[in-house]
């Protein structure tokens, strides 16, 4: 596998603050300059599904790929097509939906063919609609079970541990990430880390020389599997304990600073590979010349 500079970046808490979605203008500037000047391939690796607002951000940041819904879907942004998809089984979706209704909690079910919201709380509905910038929610329970990439549950504090326990007691295969305000379910063995590794393999890229950056527990798998891993200063202790390197807060252009650090740290690896590529091309050229000289002598 080749050494290529690929940056896998979280969105909420890394590019923009969470949950108020504020940005430091320098962050976008840093990303675009790195893409233009340092041959960076920029990838959004987010817990969000491929919402219109995420696709808009991907295009504005010249991201070539989008790893969405915690690794459940990988899109070629330029071609606007799915490269990889992994869905939750209808059995898991059905059982988790029953747990959500048991505690009268709120949740979103993100699918390839639509996004469903389950809630009886108008404030939660308004918040999620505003946060995701998505008004076209579906509410038909009977249609939820197919093509679901990811489930997000937003429990009240007194029910959070109960729901986690109930989900674990189901003995069904699923990947569960628990954050401060919510929890996320994807298909077994599917997370941001597996999404990043799949794309590295697809691009014939050595993950040891790629970069990952995030601020939350759903970033842990990505930080563990990608060589140059960075934790935002606004990360909890659990994230900082896993990342190899650290950077500033999201509102202090921590992402941009981390990208510059990554470019510096990989400078000699890139130069070494460029020299090796030149040497390999020279060998191929010399072999071709030798072949044609031998052909000419045979005549």
Automatic annotation (TrEMBL):
It comes from the Bacteria. One of its GO terms (cellular component) is cytosol. Its cofactor is Mg(2+). InterPro entries: Cof (IPR000150), HAD-like_sf (IPR036412), HAD-SF_hydro_IIB (IPR006379), HAD_sf (IPR023214). This is Hydrolases of the HAD superfamily protein. Coiled coil: none annotated. Belongs to the HAD-like hydrolase superfamily. Cof family. Keywords: Hydrolase. GO terms for molecular function: magnesium ion binding; phosphatase activity.
């Amino acid at each position: 596998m080749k050494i290529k500079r690929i940056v896998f970046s979280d969105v909420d808490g890394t590019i923009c603050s969470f949950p108020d979605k504020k940005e430091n203008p320098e962050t976008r500037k840093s990303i675009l300059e790195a893409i233009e000047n340092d041959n960076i391939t920029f990838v959004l690796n987010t817990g969000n599904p491929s919402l219109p607002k995420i696709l808009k951000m991907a295009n504005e940041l010249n991201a070539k790929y989008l790893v969405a819904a915690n690794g459940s879907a990988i899109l070629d942004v330029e071609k606007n097509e799915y490269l990889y998809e992994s869905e939750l089984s209808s059995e898991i979706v059905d059982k988790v939906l029953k747990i959500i209704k048991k505690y009268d909690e709120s949740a979103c079910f993100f699918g390839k063919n639509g996004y469903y919201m389950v809630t009886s709380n108008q404030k939660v509905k308004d918040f999620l609609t505003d946060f995701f910038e998505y008004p076209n929610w579906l509410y038909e329970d009977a249609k939820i079970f197919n093509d679901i990439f990811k489930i997000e549950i937003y429990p009240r504090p007194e029910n959070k541990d109960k729901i986690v326990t109930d989900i674990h007691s189901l003995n069904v295969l699923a990947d569960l990430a628990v954050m401060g305000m919510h929890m996320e379910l994807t298909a077994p063995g599917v997370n941001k880390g597996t999404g990043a590794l799949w794309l590295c393999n697809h691009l014939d890229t050595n993950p040891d020389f790629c970069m990952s950056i995030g601020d939350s527990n759903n970033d842990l798998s990505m930080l563990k599997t990608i060589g140059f891993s960075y934790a935002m200063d606004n990360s909890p202790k659990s994230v900082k304990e896993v990342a190899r390197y650290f950077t500033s807060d999201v509102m202090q252009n921590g992402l941009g600073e981390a990208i510059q650090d990554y470019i510096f740290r990989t400078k000699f690896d890139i130069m070494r590979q460029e020299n090796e590529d030149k040497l390999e091309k020279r060998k191929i050229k010399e072999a071709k010349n030798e072949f044609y000289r031998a052909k000419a002598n045979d005549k």
